[in-house]
# Entry
Amino acid sequence: MARNKVTVIGAGNVGATTAQRIAESGLADVVLVDIVDGLPQGKGLDLAEAAPVVGHDACVVGTNDYADTAGSDIIVVTSGIPRKPGMSRDDLISTNAGIVGAVVKAAAAVSPDAIIIVVTNPLDVMCHVAMQASGFPRERVIGMAGVLDSARFRTFIAMELGVSVKDVHAFVLGGHGDTMVPLSRYSTVAGVPITELLPADRVKALEERTANGGAEIVAFLKTGSAFYAPAASTHEMVDAILRDRKRVLPCAVMLKGEFGVDGLFVGVPAVLGRKGVERVFEIKLTADEQAAFEKSANAVRELVKVLPA
Ligand code: APR
# Structure
């Protein structure tokens, strides 16, 4: 059987950490790409030199040339610039849309059968850009946000109740932003909904902390954003796809009528397997949840409008 090949575009914090996790778990050979000359080569070589110590035999290389990425099974897109002081949200969207559009075009041209996982923010909008630039069907353009958001929710629930994160499941829907919808009714500890374990005001506080999870890290780091949990979350999606696990993971998916939304990338539970998004896992929402989901979808719709036609 041929070895799996994953291209990670952007050799910054999220990209390099994702490359490390993929190589160290033995999932695939990794090609790390960046626009900065030397950066992916240096990090790629450093990761390769860790292999004998860690005990894996995946190949890791860094490059500035998309020819080296040809025939990838998965393309992970982390390239972009962070929002700088004084920069408007719309400026960030157009700059990152330019970057994501260009890298996806170049990578998709040499890996026409790949599955794209978008990580660059603003996430849901960048998924639209990646789909347009690649021309790939919706099964093969997936956004990483929900796994991270629900991991954060799980962490906060476990901290609050003093239990292992292993026994905590959490459900987060909607766009990757302030309007995300943590579904506490479906968030459980050993199968028991947290709404039965915690008073309503504590549940609300945990939901709010989850929606603010990215900003909480930025406030600590000051000059960067989260990368360990985003990389681990991306790795989980890569694993689900390459091992054809049929995991049910919350991902940004181009909806075609599911959950009452059409033609928009929004976070929903999806069955991930070797073909990418194999199914959207539809669940019945209460009226309040549906309203919150629609509000979140509308926030994504407003951001997408900023993109050039
Ligand atoms: N082609 C390739 N790489 C590029 C390009 C481009 N056109 N433009 C920028 N890059 C690279 C940068 O050189 C940098 O190495 O993307 C990398 C981004 O890395 P960081 O600045 O360290 O950002 P990181 O923390 O990794 O976050 C990346 O993931 O979670 C999201 O919000 C986050 O959008 C951000 C992305």
In short: The domain at 5-143 is CATH 3.40.50.720 (Rossmann fold). Residues 170 and 178 are 17 Å apart (CA to CA). The mean pLDDT is 95. The chain has two domains: 5-143, 146-305.
